[in-house]
Write a structure and sequence with these properties.
Layout lengths: L3 H6 L14 E2 L5 E2 L1 E11 L5 E9 L9 H6 L19 E4 L1
Antiparallel strand pairs: 1-2, 3-4, 3-5
C-alpha cells in the first residue's frame, strides 16, 4: 500500500490506476479508501533480487508498505520467518511500474 505521493514519484496519475473492488480496513477498523492499484517490480540493486507486487494506492498512506511476501522475495527475511534468524543486510531497492 502507498499514497498518492508514491504514485506520482512513479510518474503515474489517478487516471493510470487499475480499478480495485477490494475493501481494506485499518488497524482502527476504519475503511481505507482505495483509489486503485499499480503493478510494480521492485528490485534490490545490491543483490539483484526482485519481487512483483500489486501496490494499493490510497489517500492516507504516507509511505510504501511492503508485504511479507515482498520481504521474502527480496531476501530481507527468511521464508521461515519468524521461526528462523536471517541476516540479510541489503536494503537498497528500486521500483519500476
Amino acid at each position: 500500500m502507498a499514497g498518492t505521493k508514491f504514485m506520482r514519484s512513479m510518474g503515474q496519475s489517478e487516471a493510470n490506476l487499475a480499478k480495485c473492488n477490494m475493501r481494506l480496513y485499518g488497524a482502527d477498523n476504519n475503511d481505507i479508501q482505495l483509489l486503485g492499484v499499480i503493478p510494480v517490480i521492485i528490485t534490490d540493486v545490491v543483490t539483484g533480487l526482485q519481487t512483483r507486487q500489486i501496490v494499493y494506492i490510497c489517500n492516507k498512506a504516507s509511505t510504501l508498505l511492503l508485504s511479507l511476501k515482498a520481504y521474502e522475495d527480496l531476501g530481507y527475511i527468511s521464508h521461515n520467518f519468524p521461526s528462523s534468524h536471517y541476516g540479510a543486510a541489503s536494503n537498497a531497492a528500486t521500483l519500476a511500474a
